[in-house]
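Q: What residues go here?
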């Protein structure tokens, strides 16, 4: 059986080889690719003989799947699966699995790293400290007493809610289905946007959530509000967001994601907009989280090879 690791998985090759051999022995031949290439023709060439493909967030679409006649399993080592054509996989009977929940704590903590960097002007403070300047113009705001709006009450959203409550925030949530068992206050989307001092995104990217924060909805937010996006860049109309910020109709934005994966283009409007802190999709990347997802990846492979079902199946 042939396993193709179609891009670097942020796991040292030697360690991954060791784990695979320890778990699967010689039942799987592994081919590693050390470069990331999103060109469909390249992916077809790399994966055409694979029984199993492992990847992070490479777009794996119908045209590629159709050129992989032996493919039986796709393992993504992230949580989201919007980069995989699930319909094409189901038509072919190809199993898909992911690594759920590995980065819940990491992403939740990153949410507050971005938020505090904005509210306490940490980048400007660091620059002032290094250039013999004082506190002038560096007065921040506190989180206590603020209304903290959370879009998406999954594991990450609920973890963010607990941390926000620990800061003394009043938490309100919007979710496709209300979850009374959480004890949180659920409201409609317009109410959340109008009432929140902080809006934090924790939704998956689907056809129903693509562009959920469009121009009209961004305009409903308070002019002092702060938007945090550690989920998916496609949830937001980023050009409209940049315009809102430039015109002073939003207080700031902390963005770990844009509408494309990094490296981000140097001329992206949000990278030249006041009151924005941007990071290159790094929220998930802690040593602890990456170790958890490595274990989940191995569990998925072992479950599928030994029992015909991955440990964390999607379809």
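A:
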């Amino acid at each position: 059986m042939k396993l193709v690791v179609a891009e670097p998985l942020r796991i040292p090759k030697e360690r991954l080889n060791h784990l695979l051999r320890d778990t699967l022995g010689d039942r799987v031949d592994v081919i590693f690719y050390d470069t990331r290439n999103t060109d469909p023709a390249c992916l077809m060439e790399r994966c055409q003989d694979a029984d199993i493909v492992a990847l992070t967030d490479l777009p794996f679409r119908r045209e590629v799947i159709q050129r992989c006649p032996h493919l039986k399993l796709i393992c993504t080592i992230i949580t989201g699966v919007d980069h995989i054509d699930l319909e094409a996989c189901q038509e072919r009977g190809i199993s898909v699995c992911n690594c759920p929940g590995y980065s819940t704590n990491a992403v939740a903590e990153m949410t507050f790293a971005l938020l505090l960097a904005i509210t306490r002007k940490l980048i400007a403070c660091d620059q002032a400290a290094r250039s013999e300047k004082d506190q002038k113009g560096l007065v921040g705001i506190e989180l206590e007493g603020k209304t903290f709006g959370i879009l998406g009450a999954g594991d990450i959203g609920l973890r963010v809610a607990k941390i926000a409550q620990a800061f003394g925030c009043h938490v309100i949530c919007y979710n496709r289905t209300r979850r009374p068992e959480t004890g949180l206050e659920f409201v409609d989307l317009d109410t959340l946007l109008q009432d929140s001092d902080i809006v934090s995104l924790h939704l998956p990217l689907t056809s129903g959530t693509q562009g959920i924060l469009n121009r009209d909805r961004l305009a409903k937010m308070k002019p002092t509000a702060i938007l945090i996006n550690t989920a998916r860049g496609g949830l937001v109309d980023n050009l409209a967001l940049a315009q809102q910020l430039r015109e002073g109709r939003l207080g700031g934005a902390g963005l770990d994601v844009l509408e494309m994966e990094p490296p981000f283009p140097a001329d992206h409007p949000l990278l030249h907009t006041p009151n924005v802190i941007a990071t290159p999709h790094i929220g998930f990347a802690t040593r602890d989280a990456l170790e958890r997802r490595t274990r989940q990846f191995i569990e998925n492979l072992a479950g599928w090879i030994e029992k015909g079902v991955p440990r964390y199946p999607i379809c």
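A: Context that may help when evaluating the design: The radius of gyration is 21 Å. The first strand starts at residue 2 and ends at 5.
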